[in-house]
Automatic annotation (TrEMBL):
Protein name in the entry: WDR64 protein
InterPro entries reported in the protein's UniProt record: WD-EF-hand_domain, WD40/YVTN_repeat-like_dom_sf, WD40_repeat_dom_sf
Species for this entry: Dicaeum eximium
Taxonomic lineage: Eukaryota, Metazoa, Chordata, Craniata, Vertebrata
Keywords: Repeat
């Protein structure tokens, strides 16, 4: 309790220090500031910050924080940036007997993958871990799908550049039984056979989809090597349930499109139950096998979070929904604590 009180006092003083710097710099730029003994330069900022937080902050983080303030007065950095967010391998952490840990953030070691999977002006829209296979799947907005496989402490990757008109990829997941990567775009569903080693990758495109698909997640149920089920959310508040079998790849495909090995699957040939659960975009969708429930969230203030059985997408019985002012942007479930946590 004493440490917490001390930290709150130190944080308040630090925030006052930052405000004084911003006021000083603003007055300097307008020509109204005259230098005096109360002026704050980097040396004074460094000394004060070090006195407030001690060894919990590092020199490079203090420098970076000060530089951010100087370069953009309108958007000051968040206070927790002064503590940094990552601990490099070189920092060394001798077991659990470190003399004084940072009382603010304890972050585990990270391993950086230096392989570049996106080009300029492209962003990662989805990243999924597949623990049983030691895979990591990523999808970029402009169509780069990548599967990282961890072997002998290094990462191998299989990448696909999927270009379909100007449709952006909005999310991805992994189908564990069929061993495909699934991704959703504004108008279609991509099913990529990442195991194909040919120059032109193999896969399927399910289209057309009437609304813009924004997110996707796999429903992990009883093992059935012949099929996988996944959920999707769109920009009209609908949640879809789709089951794909290995037979679908044979029975329902049409000819491959030009300059692509991807074969088209007609969406009209599939039974795709859907239900409108939100009055705004479906931001995230997840399936929790421990609860045997799916969750979907939206910025809709009335139906902000839905948590129920996937059967509700087919029988249209009342659903369990929760209201949060201004909606929910993210959520997750902690099995150990048995709580659902949301972020708005």
């Amino acid at each position: 309790a004493l440490e917490l009180t001390d930290f709150k006092n130190a944080l308040e003083q630090f925030q006052n220090l930052v405000e004084k710097i911003i006021i000083q710099k603003t007055r300097e730029s307008s020509g109204l500031y005259t230098k005096d003994d109360d002026g704050i330069d980097y040396d004074k900022f460094y000394t004060t910050t070090r006195a407030l937080f001690g060894s919990a902050v590092k020199d490079q983080n203090i420098q970076a924080f000060f530089r951010k303030i100087m370069n953009n007065l309108d958007e000051k950095p968040e206070w927790l940036e002064i503590f940094g967010c990552f601990k490099g391998e070189s920092d060394g952490m001798p077991s659990q007997k470190k003399e004084k840990e940072s009382m603010i953030l304890l972050v585990s070691e990270k391993q950086q993958i230096t392989h570049s999977v996106v080009k300029r002006k492209d962003v990662i829209k989805g990243i999924v871990k597949v623990p049983l296979l030691h895979y990591t799947v990523t999808a970029s907005q402009k169509g780069v799908l990548t599967v990282f496989t961890k072997k002998r402490k290094s990462f191998l990757s299989y990448s696909l550049y999927f270009h379909q008109d100007t449709a952006w990829i909005n999310g991805c997941d992994f189908l564990p039984n069929l061993k495909y990567v699934v991704a959703v775009t504004e108008s279609s569903v991509i099913l990529w056979d990442y195991k194909t080693k040919e120059v032109k990758s193999d896969g399927f495109v399910l289209k057309p989809m009437k609304n813009s698909l924004l997110c996707v997640c796999t429903v992990t149920m009883a093992d059935d090597l012949a099929k996988d089920t996944f959920l999707m959310g769109d920009d009209k508040g609908y949640v879809y349930l789709l089951t794909i079998t290995s037979d679908d790849f044979i029975m329902k495909q049409s000819k491959a499109e030009k300059e692509s090995q991807f074969k088209v699957l007609d969406s009209e040939a599939f039974d795709i139950p859907k239900r409108k659960l939100h009055d705004d975009w479906v931001g995230k969708i997840k399936y929790f096998s421990a609860l045997k429930r799916f969750g979907s969230c939206s910025t809709d203030s009335t139906n902000s979070l839905v948590l129920d059985d996937i059967k509700r997408l087919e029988d249209h019985l009342p659903i369990k929904e929760f209201s949060v002012p201004q909606g929910v942007n993210a959520f997750t479930y902690c099995g150990k604590a048995k709580v659902i946590v949301t972020g708005g």
